Amino acid sequence: MKQFCLDPTLAADTIPVADLGLCRLLLMNDSRFPWMILVPKRADVTEIYELSPLDQTMLTFETVTVSEHLRVLTGCHKVNVAALGNQVRQLHMHVIARHVDDDAWPNPVWGSGRAKPYAREAAEHFISEFTASFQERS
């Protein structure tokens, strides 16, 4: 059985947050958008239907839970959830807090300008607030 390994592109573009029951939770390193990524810790999975029914349920639960916490933390107007896989084949779910005044609104965040990486302290602060909220509400 192959072991889970995070795609190198995801590893380079994100900051680790936590390991959940099924997924590795990551923060996209683009401070313009509060943007979490969930990656199921399963080897060689590229599509949701390749997960077992139990893992599909767990992925849905973790996606909804992260979405709710991101909404509460950021006060966003909309939470976008997507699994595209056009550039990174490894299955991953994007959970993005959107505000009507963000850099890309109302368009998708993909291809909207250049990413603005977090300052280390800002990333640590966001992750700390998110994980504290996550632990309080879970």
UniProtKB/TrEMBL annotation:
PROSITE patterns assigned: HIT_2
First and last residue of the signal peptide: none
Residue stretches making up the HIT domain: 36-105
A GO MF label: catalytic activity
Protein origin, superkingdom: Bacteria
Protein name, per record: HIT domain-containing protein
Biological source species: Oricola thermophila
